[in-house]
């Protein structure tokens, strides 16, 4: 007996990386899987329909059930077709895993409109569009079956400032916001909505990131993208009590993230602040430095001279004439 026996799962971006591992693991736990992936590059260019089909074939060869989908998450009609594909192939839909991702890394002064729009379209609009059509299906079903949505976010935009990838950070922060909003909205239909935030997972999008070492043969690999799949599967299980949460996954550590929190404040009674008064009061507050926080987060992978190395990476991106 698997933890997902009989569940029907639609997984976007399932042709490679974390999405592929989620598709394979969900199937091994008994889920019937719609493997969605248009087969684009890490930057979102071109497309290879064979990528999704290869994963579906691998699942079936292992005795599981799967169909391939090559629809684009940014296409409104395509998002609807993904849901219809699940219902036509397997009779219903129980789980959506929004994992589709691309990356266009560029410093702000060089980033183009297309580079910004394309990343937000895949991550933010794609998550919205697929979830919307799934939610419409569940509402129309009118039953009380346990359903789940698992979104994919990142430390960029949540814990890190997203240096030289403001488009990606903004999109992922937006997906975290959608997660909480949709968790409240869809609870009335028996749908739980959570997010996973993979950290230091070895994928196409993290190639070249400091600390992404090659796995050691025969040893446990803490950077294996399959580790995220186990957490996503837990969130997809019937009766899982978690809703409206973002879980950071780093190796085998799973940490609940609390999002924006209230910090220190200043108050003046009886009259508005003057600019000078407010400046004096604000100067006494303990401000957070996003650069220092970024250094602290990735310091272990950068080694000694962390701050200088991170700044050098930023300077290299800024030096690109675009």
Automatic annotation (TrEMBL):
KW Oxidoreductase (keyword) present: yes
Xref: Gene3D superfamilies: NAD(P)-binding Rossmann-like Domain
Coiled-coil annotated residue ranges, if any: none
Boundaries of every Ketoreductase domain copy: 7-199
Highest taxon listed in the record's lineage: Bacteria
A Pfam family matched in the record: adh_short
Keywords, sorted A to Z: Oxidoreductase
PANTHER family for this protein: DEHYDROGENASES, SHORT CHAIN (PTHR45024), SCP2 DOMAIN-CONTAINING PROTEIN (PTHR45024:SF2)
Similarity comment: Belongs to the short-chain dehydrogenases/reductases (SDR) family.
Protein name listed in UniProt: SDR family NAD(P)-dependent oxidoreductase
Organism annotation: Nonomuraea corallina
Taxonomic path: Bacteria, Bacillati, Actinomycetota, Actinomycetes, Streptosporangiales
